[in-house]
Amino acid sequence: MDLAIVGAGTMGAGVARVAITRGLAVTLYDAVPAALERGAQRVYEALGRGMRRGRLSAAEHDAALACLFTARNLDDLAAAPFVLEAAPEDLAIKREVFARLSEVCAPGAVLVSNTSSISITAIAAGAAHPGRVAGMHFFNPVPAMSLVEVIAGHLTDEATVAAVMAMARRLGKTPVRAKDTPGFIVNRVARPFYGEALRILAEGTDAATVDRVMRAAGFKMGPFELMDLIGIDVNFAVTRSVYEAFFGEPRYRPHPIQAQMVAAGALGRKTGRGFYSYDDASHAQGEGHAQGEGHAQGEGQSKGDGQSKGDGDAQR
């Protein structure tokens, strides 16, 4: 086993897919059996699509599949030299995961979190050996995004950072060291991109227009397309995390539109409805159709107005 992944959601499955196509033996674990099955199935289907489209040969497809294993018990990760946590963006959950991993894994195992914004120092407080804990923040979709933020906590050993940088390169990614500050680099810089777009939406400009203008300005995706891709719940959670970590700094304040959309279950592509609606065909292809007056009406007062590190924001 070269790599163990705790959490079989979008990000965990995405990292697993990248790793096995590069020959790493990966064990995927999730505390929820149904989530583990969905995550593994997502990997199988992605590899099948890659083969049908000519991106993978049959031999490469079969070799990748042979590298993927699943575990239904955390104890099965005991031999893992490198463990990536991709659990929900909640400090208490992550601390609990790292406490359990400290009990299960060897003292020399490298334990990393894919958190989008939570302090690595705070997460490492749950581990028996905080020097072996670091952040390894992938971006969504993992197969397409080359950047990985590598974050050292207050007590992280330099050897651990070197091991994480090496793993990122082994996965074909471009690692960049970031300070253990709220949102690290990308998600901190991105907050105004989303926040101002939501304010413009609340003032009456529809989401499709904002996205079109931002693409014309050189962005590959507009803010509302990107929030739908990331997952509006994940994006909202990251915004809240950064806002709270900066003790209520107004420029990072979450918007009520996102909160209402999360409450309504309109989370973007993964639910078929967000700032855009996705029918079965367009949902599969990643295409969406603007909802009525641009998906959020007025001052964020209607249902479906409003709210997934990614943000590398990644889905978990």
Short key terms for the protein model shown above:
N-(1-d-carboxylethyl)-l-norvaline Dehydrogenase, domain 2; 43% helix; Rossmann fold; alpha/beta; 2 domains; two-stranded antiparallel ribbon; 316 residues
Fraction of helical residues: 40-55%
Give me the strand/helix succession.
EHEHHEEHEHEEHEHHHHHEHE
CATH class assignment of the largest domain: Alpha Beta
CATH-level-4 superfamily name of the largest domain: NAD(P)-binding Rossmann-like Domain
DSSP E strands, number: 10
**Morphology:** globular
Annotated CATH topology of the largest domain:
Rossmann fold
Percent in strands: 5-15%
Task: Describe it.
With 316 residues, this protein is an alpha/beta fold. It has two domains: 3-178, NAD(P)-binding Rossmann-like Domain (Rossmann fold); 186-290, N-(1-d-carboxylethyl)-l-norvaline Dehydrogenase, domain 2. It is 43% helix and 13% strand. It has helices at residues 10-21, 33-52, 58-65, 91-104, 120-124, 158-170, 186-202, 207-216, 223-230, 232-245, 256-264, 280-285, and strands at residues 3-6, 26-29, 68-71, 82-85, 110-113, 133-138, 147-152, 174-178, 276-277, 289-290. An eight-stranded mixed beta sheet has the order 3-2-1-4-5-6-7-8, sandwiched between helices. It starts with a strand and ends in a 26-residue tail after the last strand. The model is unreliable at 281-286, 291-310 and 312-316 (pLDDT under 50).
